[in-house]
Amino acid sequence: MKNYISLSDIENLDLAIAEGLQLKNNNTVANVGKGKTLGMLFFNPSLRTRLSTEKAAKLLGMEVMVMNADKDGWALEFEDGAIMNSNKAEHIKEAAAVLSQYCDIIAVRAFPGLEDKAKDEEDLVMKSFKKYATVPVVNLESATGHPLQALTDAMTITELQKTKKPKVVLTWAPHPRALPQSVPNSFVEVMQRMDVEFVIANPPGYDLNPQVKKDTKVFHNQDEALKDADFVYVKNWSSYENYGKILSEDSSWTFSEQKVQLTNDAKVMHCLPVRRNVVIDDAVLDSPNSVVIQQAGNRTYAAQVVLKRLLENLEIE
Ligand SMILES: NCCC[C@H](NC(=O)CCC(=O)O)C(=O)O
Ligand SMILES: NC(=O)OP(=O)(O)O
What residue ranges in the chain does DSSP mark as E strands? Predict the structure, then answer.
């Protein structure tokens, strides 16, 4: 693997899932990262991604440097040919080239602005790092995807599934802020590659990018979609059609105990952080149906799989 920008960078998903679960269960500490440095740049807040990726890197023997790029770094210019006479002090061309001398792998988190659809879809920050860095780049959640989360989610479903082909529902839930489509996009991508019965539930106006959704069935009636579900992934996202807008805060979509009753005693997933009693009720999050803590625990092993593959590829070169 040369970069981990999107889920499509993993060719054999089953193998990656199996490797992640093996790392978890065997507690194997490889030394493939000895003498290598991971640099992580955060343009947005993080708890899990930051700490689980740091832990994964250290388990592989790597050194880790972390920077809150939005607060501590120079404001970066990403536009080619920009006349930099305003507030941006440094161009990505220099920043990425310089970082590539300090780091063997660069990992970046950069959320979408949710104002300009075309601009967000370009995924300019991630693409620019990939273009100008001379070392592998890892996506820690970008404008369009969160592939480390998706690999984690696939691992979590695999380790918990009781049937060969479980039913998985991705359901929208209300939220007071406009959130990215990155997490649902990557979850849809990974479910489309797994042997599961997968459907999406969201209110009208919240259908995801048709290029991501493809032929996945979408229900505008949540209760109908939840029938017989073995896994329910709850997540808010802002509208794609009416880009970045909040069209509904309908609390009848909040994931409640009554909603669990409609399922096949489903395991309830969320990438976290979760707004209690807005997105998912306390009664669900504090019940045995919730697997959100186990899911977050798996982030370390998903990151380990990805970093290990990038390091092994560096060794071959
Ligand atoms: N990395 C996991 C989720 C990150 C982000 N959530 C948030 O920004 C929630 C913040 C809040 O609840 O105010 C998202 O949905 O993409
Ligand atoms: N799930 C996730 O990416 O969490 P953080 O935003 O805390 O990293």
Answer: 37-42, 63-67, 76-77, 90-91, 105-109, 137-139, 167-172, 197-201, 217-219, 231-235, 267-269
Show the CA angle centred on residue 190, arms to residues 277 and 199, nearest 5°. 60
The neighbouring-strand residues paired with 231 are 168, 267
In the chain, what are the domains? 7-145+299-316 (3.40.50.1370), 147-296 (3.40.50.1370)
pLDDT tens track for 161-196: 999 999 999 999 999 999 999 999 999 999 999 999
Whether the CB of 141 sits within 6 Å of ligand 1: yes
* Ligand 2 atom showing the smallest separation from residue 49 Cα: 8
Ligand 2 atom with minimal separation from the 271 CA: 1
Point out the least confidently predicted range of 28-32, 95-99, 168-172, 223-227.
28-32
Closest ligand 2 atom to 146 CA: 3
pLDDT at position 314: 84
Q: How far is the CA of 103 from the centre of ligand 2 (A)?
A: 23
DSSP output for 226-282: HTT-SEEEEE----TTTTT------GGGSB-HHHHHTSSS-EEE--S---BTTTB-H
Whether pTM exceeds 0.95 = yes
Sign of the C-alpha dihedral computed for residues 118, 91, 180 and 12 taken in this order? positive
CA atoms within 13 A on the CB side of 66: 17
| pLDDT tens sequence across 283-314 | 999 999 999 999 999 999 999 999 999 999 98
- Is residue 275 within 6 Å of ligand 1 at its C-beta? yes
